[in-house]
Design a protein that fits this description.
With about 210 residues, this protein is mainly alpha-helical. It is about 60% helix and about 0% strand. The protein contains twelve helices and no strands.
């Protein structure tokens, strides 16, 4: 078994349910939650959306709410003003161009306001079960620590992971790395003692030299 296969295998065994932690009630609300999660923790987004999605569920609900109304509702998260503008605009785009349905392909997703490559990859993976690899801060950091990529550019890291991650793990690798980075290999205080990848970690191997 190669080193990369060992990493994927161990993460798969240690994280039984590698799923997104964002709360949502439909494809549309998941897209909104992902847009809101940029530079904001999932925990903070979930605090907002738990209440938000009880009151506003559909595209029409959000369009009626409008930018200012949505800004007020999500004011506790980072970049809320810009996110509200994008969410209302993408809601209009979904209704006018995509029959109020979240598209499943990258070009259509990235044509929506506030949707970049990472958001598109998350949506394609979670909602449509496509083996896309979304590179967030956790994936970026762990890819370097584990020697999966030497790059700091998310697109370059994504390309590296696409090349080396075995196909059977591609569906889950983003969530596996995110959850491992969130709860074990934390940026400020990594729990190396309980890490299933400790003997494969480049930063730990370097520190023991």
């Amino acid at each position: 078994m190669t080193r990369v296969e060992q990493i994927c295998e161990r993460l798969s065994h240690s994280i039984k349910e590698p799923k997104t932690e964002l709360k949502y009630i439909s494809d549309y609300t998941f897209l909104i939650a992902v847009v809101m999660s940029a530079q904001t923790t999932d925990v903070q987004v979930n605090k907002v959306t738990t209440s938000l999605f009880r009151k506003y569920k559909t595209i029409d609900d959000f369009l009626k709410l409008g930018v200012e109304g949505l800004q007020y509702e999500i004011r506790s998260i980072g970049l809320y003003k810009n996110k509200a503008k994008n969410i209302i605009e993408l809601s209009r785009q979904l209704k006018e161009k995509f029959h109020s349905k979240v598209p499943s392909n990258r070009d259509d997703l990235e044509s929506l306001a506030g949707v970049g490559r990472k958001t598109a990859n998350v949506v394609m993976n979670v909602l449509f079960n496509q083996p896309t690899i979304a590179v967030d801060t956790h994936v970026l950091r762990l890819s370097k620590i584990l020697g999966l990529s030497k790059h700091d550019n998310p697109l370059k890291v994504e390309e590296d992971l696409e090349k080396i991650i075995p196909n059977k793990y591609k569906n889950n690798i983003s969530n596996l790395l995110v959850l491992h980075g969130r709860y074990t290999c934390k940026a400020k205080k990594p729990d190396c003692e309980h890490c299933v990848l400790a003997d494969l970690c480049l930063s730990r191997l370097k520190s023991s030299d």
